[in-house]
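Shall we go through a protein fold together, starting from nothing but its sequence? Label the sequence line and the structure token line clearly, so we can match residues to local backbone shapes. Would you write everything just below, so we can both look at the same thing?
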Amino acid sequence: MNLKETKVHLDQTWEVLERAVGGSDKSPILRSNDPDFIKKALQTDFPSMEDSFEKVLNEFESQILPFLNLNTDTRFGAYITGSGNKISALAEFVKAFFNQNGLKWNNSPIASELEQLVIQWIAEFVQLPEFNKGILTSGGSMSNLMGIHFALASRFPNREMNGFYGEKPFIIYCSNQTHSSVDRAMVFLGLGRSYLRKIDVNDQFEIKTDKLKEAIRKDISDGLQPLMIIGNAGTTNTGSIDDLQTLAEIAKEFNLWYHVDGAYGLPAKRLAHLKTEFSGIEHADSIIINPHKWMYVTFEASCVLLKEIPQAIHFSPDYLFTEDPGLRWESSEHTIELSKEFRALKIWFTMKYYGAKQLTDFVELDIEMINYLAELLENEENVVVEPHHPLSILCFRWSDPNLSEEENESINIAAVRSIETRGNIFITGTKLHGKTYLRVYYGNPERTKQDVEFMVEEINTVFAKLI
């Protein structure tokens, strides 16, 4: 395909995309929750021979496009799924067009150098300029795994050759609200979930630091080996922020690696009224943040920030020979990845186009919209809103005093399913206080009060049909 043909096909593709997102505001944003229906729609013959672009595009429009959720729509409020932005999407096309692979510095010098530049920019954006070293990863799960990996590399440099055979079991501490990626990291790193201590939280879903110290002392007396504390700078369930200063002091007292998961919430540190909530994060050894969440970059783009990166791997095969070791940044010396996509480009485009001030305004708007949602829901009869929502996550549930706990619980579970089936909005459920709550995340700067009001109308409709 030559450049002229590519341009024609780009124009054709753009027309399809415009048709897909330019329809009625009332069209479903969650297209289907029926796996069998989707599988049947995708059934086609194995493509053994070439086909025309027009036919490929037509089949895309009929077989795939109808099932793409409109995650960029203002009615989307599920999980912590950032809206992305169109500048970032354009950067993704440029990245794919040039097919850069940062497996080695000389394979794409600009990919390696731009990654280090945007990491410095991200550190400045969250007002932690001393954390100007790090690595871009696919998401918070990989970044949290890397944080534990760096803790191990720092404290046990001999593990590269000898592993951990003969060592006392390592213990990692976090709250019971910490993201499940830490559980998975314990499995993938061979540390074992039994050695992850999940500490209870207070009424605001923040780790109880006195219980943490008790757990550390007990593990030491039991002959175990405390390794790391993980603090939350915006939990997945409620957006709660741990007492990061006290966690830093505890980590120092017991000589533990201090890691902070700010994948979602850290950009809120720029807001004047929330700045003190993040006090103590500057003492961390490693921090993670996901630009694809509250910096509105398209997926995938996460980041591990450090002041210094512990040397993780001390060897290189002959086919990865480096002529000037130490002068060129080689991310493969620190991560499991060799092939590495050019994630930095979409972050660079986003930060250059919008600038720190406008991105901060977007974050503030999301918080204003979630507070407006809370205000509307609090005025609804029999709807209980979780009072602690410091960022842009809100949990609420149906609670009719004339019904039993079991009846209220079944209504909330059914509401989550009904909202997904209807598809007019998309929010999810979670558990708080042992009960099912509906949960909304806002991360789209195009959302208006009218969008929030529409969401409340839809929620009311669902509850009314279930009562």
The CA atoms of residues 119 and 132 lie 6 Å apart. The radius of gyration is 24 Å.
